Amino acid sequence: MTTPIIRRHAPEVLAPAGNLRGLKTAIDYGADAVYCGGKAFGMRSAPRNLSIADFTEGAAYAHERGARVYVTLNILPRNAEVPAIEQYIHQLAATGVDALIVTDIGVMMLARRIAPELELHVSTQAGVTNYLAANALYELGARRVVLARELDVQAVRDIRANIPDDLDVEAFVHGSMCMAFSGRCLISNYLTGRDGNHGECAQPCRWKYSLVEEKRPGQVFPLEETEQGTYLFNSQDMNMMEHLDDLIDSGVTSLKIEGRAKSAYYVAAMTNAYKTAVNEYMRQRGFEDADGNPLKPFANRIVRDRTVVADDAVARRADEAFAGVPGMDFEPDTQDVADAADELIARFPHAAVEPADPVELPGWLREEPYKVAHRDYSTGFYYPEHKVTQNTDRSAYHRAWLVVGEALSWSPEEGGRLTLMSRNKIEPGQLVEILLPGRQPLEYVIPEGGIRDADGSPVALINNPAHVFSIPMPVEVPVNAAIRSRTKKPTLKAE
What we know:
The protein is of the alpha/beta class.
């Protein structure tokens, strides 16, 4: 029943974890590496995060299965925090984790001095947008740069073509985005006193905003998006499932899923989906056979002769990726300035990629991102003609599927029986899907009869959350597997 999991260093599927269970779940569902935070000094303080003991156990669990663990140490620290950070790095080094994700150059150099065995990954908060910055960080000891989220695909190609081969490139592929430059935001600090650069963001970008006129206190005017008000800064989520081939072909080493504050189900579903998509890439590009056996060494597809492929639409639109860069929105004061800018752009040596057929993903895999709670999806900033925008009329999540149960154990007795912890209603005739590592989810119709409570007594249906039940199940199901079902009516709900 269990599909063997292939672990790779590149292309790496990097999954989030907000606690030890999330770390183990990510690894069980195929993650090559997991990133997580401790009780301090990370950019997400809302999750429970991991203790030093958790990191020790988590690193051992990962290494036994060929995976790795990265720890976020990516706040922008204040002076008084430096001694505690130094002590914390010493503690982390003793746990067996593999890398630290840092933003501050001082923290980076401190870690290099006192824990040289740990890899140093430079966080997206550092805002790496060009190869000069990447190369400078490499000289300072960085093993990986996590690219700024504002980059387009061509910028990724250009960076990869102009940095050392042993400098990893990490890029986000899925999850929430932030209305700030690479996450550096002051809105939360300004409105609530909670510092977003210290992992305490109150997410005011998701709040509903209306207008109040100074001389009319208490009289609220909606900002015309809807009668309920408007959500000025509420960015769409990212979903690059159907464009992973573009990113990997462009030289991305690690594909990062956002979501350390998300549920174990989200981690399992998205990790499994992106891992399966990468497996498809490796097979269809000819790097591995259907069983995952290597056929030729994996390498990114950058052509380093600085020649732009004439019909490369991504390269043609690359210079429109940033506001203020000459492009379709550039309006100079004189034509001479415009001509000079166009000439400068035309001379920029964009990196090209070898032509390749698109990787075709099965339909079930393309649908997986829509089976977790999500805002409207976009492809972020990767394609200048299709940039991420805001959902200004709401901040709620789409939810078309619900987790209805979680597997506790499976027994082959009586033709197979699954014991589960209930989460939502389950009744005879209901179609459910069971999330299985490394493969398409299992569809199963709950049979008439056979549902039992914890005492073994027959019951007509399951309608008590957080209670133990059992159902007939002829197929072996792993412990902790999520059981989900389509909602009768898709909803918009706060996460």
